[in-house]
Amino acid sequence: MEIRIPYIVTLTDFNILCHYATMVDRQGHFCPGCKQGQRCAAACKTNTIPNFSQRYKYADELLQKAAAVAVPSEFVASVVHQEFPEIVPYVIPHGIAPEFSFSRGPINQVKTFAYVGTFSELKGIHVLIAAFRRLTGDYTLDLYGTGTAFYERRLKRLAGNDQRIHFCGSVSFERMPEVYRTHDCIVVPSLWYETYNFVVREAISAGCLVVASRMGAMPEAVREGKNGILFDLGEKNLFLALQKAVSMNRVVCSINNPTVITETNAYEQIYLALIR
């Protein structure tokens, strides 16, 4: 029985149209869309979902009946609209916590690099290590995070005996501002379509330079040559981006990131409109 209570759907990833939520298929290829479930059935067949067309139908019905659909980035909005043409989502960026908004002054020279996040194949840490090892000089790369034992062993083999690369383990939210405060450049080498990426925006808010792959929503936050550097996928391209980073000096990074308050206000305006 329907009780017709208005509701808002917020899509923070691609689960509504991709059961992996990554838009990367089982062969590791980027997905052009689920094609109403037809491509899912052909490329990503699994026993856990017996009927992909039915899954798509449920998703379409959920979105069609929503009073509003919200997403965190223009990129996600375009993907959702392409798959569900009648849906035009509100773009409401996630708010960045005030702990990451502080002034650290200009970066005179980039010397310290860091990666922060989950250790997984799609996050591209193996590409970062390979690219960093090609960089000559007294630079450091600190890797914060954990993953499967298999992938971590692979990363440590790639790092070899390079004493400049440090595996720092997981880091709590409370320690994150200090990580940004003590590193010049944060590298986000993702190999998949990031739907938002908090690390990119937190790092820039904290005054760090960001090197990020030109994937998904990350280019929406990076101003090339000002607060960051974007690179196309590939070890060589990442190496060239790292080289460009160390050649920059007196870098002053900033971005007007949305706050938790601005995000809340955006949702409040939608709810107030529904009430009226």
Report on the structure:
The protein has 276 residues and is α/β, with parallel strands linked by helices. It has two domains: 8-93 and 264-275, no CATH class; 98-247, 3-Layer(aba) Sandwich (Rossmann fold), CATH 3.40.50. Helix content is 34%, strand content 13%. The chain contains nine helices and nine strands. The protein has helices at 38-43, 52-65, 74-83, 125-133, 149-159, 176-181, 198-205, 235-247, 260-275, and strands spanning 8-10, 68-71, 90-91, 112-116, 140-144, 165-169, 185-188, 209-213, 228-231. It has a six-stranded parallel sheet, sandwiched between helices. Strands 1-2-3 form a three-stranded parallel sheet. Strand 5 (140-144), helix 5 (149-159) and strand 6 (165-169) form a beta-alpha-beta unit. Helix 4 (125-133) crosses helix 8. The chain is globular, with a radius of gyration of 20 Å. The chain starts with 7 loop residues before the first strand and ends with a helix. The model has no long low-confidence stretch (mean pLDDT 92).
